[in-house]
Amino acid sequence: MKSLAQRRQSAPSLIFVKALNRSRSVSREGCFSPISPEACPLVQSFMCHNRTFILDGHVQLKTGLQTQERHLFLFTDLLVVAKSKSHSHFKLKCQARLCEMWTAFCTEEVCEGSTDPERSFVLGWPTTNCVANFRSAEQKETWLSFLQSRIREEKEKDYPKSIPLKIIAKDIGTCAYSKTLSVTNVDTANDVILMALQQLGINGCEKDYKLWVISGREDAPYPLIGHEYPFGIKMSHIRDAMPHGSKHCACPRQLQGSFLTEQLPQELQCQFVLKPSRLAVCQQLNDVSQKSFKRKRSIINWAFWRGPGTHLDNAPLSSTSGAPGKLFGLLLTAICEDDNLPKPLL
User: Fold this and answer.
1) Any idea where the Ras-associating domain is (predicted)?
2) 166 and 266 assigned to the same domain
């Protein structure tokens, strides 16, 4: 039994702990509760005569093994991602035009670990894919409905609605060659792959190939999963080359002529390269490995890989090597047991 003096000494500390817990609880509730647009400086900074604030909410954004607490602000033509500093003050992290965005449900391709499909979906914009994880299924459905509706409407207002897109084919046959396709703002990466294969006279389907992007914004090339819009990726680079103040207008009529050519600064250029998919190259190994692996290895190891170089030949997708038929200088027959590749490689 504690003495009366001991109980009196411990009372202040207990009161302090309870007060601290209440403060944290209030802070979390304040973070989750809707904000007042009129009292939020960040929202006010984006308001203009042709833009209306629609919705805001707390979300977890997951990419690879990373999870970040963020606050989303949806406008009629823009999505703003911010970090909460207090109930009404936020630090801007990024912003994306809705006409250049996409949604999907391939969460296992974007982040590692389990996600609740009832509360999550893939949210993306040029050079970015992430899993948006909401607090409830109802909140997820609300955001998904608003985003899909606004993305569709902004694409209908988009100008232009099609652009020439140069596709470079590499590691297909004995030489590299290219084709220029007319791509619309609703064509996915898989759609573009199929068009390119048809134009290039190559047999196969979208699962046999990957469309890679070489962007001046990134340190290394990266592959598209298949649901992204190459049109939006290209147009985001073109808009970045426009004079300041016009890149976020509703319908920029300046997007024509030289802006639709490759005459852009190096850091604003992007190229699209078609290469054989690792999944296609290793398809014959799936039957062997599926007994010991419950699911295929996630594409996240490629989609978020970043290397020191900027040349596609340095990317890990290449299926060629300096010594055909060999791995690390050894014959495949010498390192493969029962015709199976080593486990580390699988």
Assistant:
1) 161-279
2) yes
In a domain? residue 61: yes
- Helix spans in 33-165 (H): 41-46, 137-157
Phi, psi of 212 (to 5 degrees): -100, 150
Residue at 333: amino acid letter: T
Structure confidence by residue, pLDDT tens digits, 31-72: 456 688 889 999 999 999 999 999 999 999 999 999 999 999
SS3 category, 233: helix
Tell me the C-alpha distance between 116 and 122, whole Å. 12
User: Each residue of 82-111: b (16+ CB within 10 Å) or e?
Assistant: bebeebbebeeeeebbbbbbbebeebbbbb
Does the predicted model carry a pTM greater than 0.85? no
Residue that terminates a domain, selected from 157, 183, 211: 157
SS3 per residue for 141-174? HHHHHHHHHHHHHHHHHCCCCEEEEEEEECCCCC
Q: What is the CATH number of the domain that holds 105?
A: 2.30.29.30
Contact indicator for 53, 73 with CB cutoff of 8 Å: yes
DSSP 340: B
Count CB neighbours of 221 within 10 A.
Answer: 25
**Final residue of a domain: which of 157, 179, 200?**
157
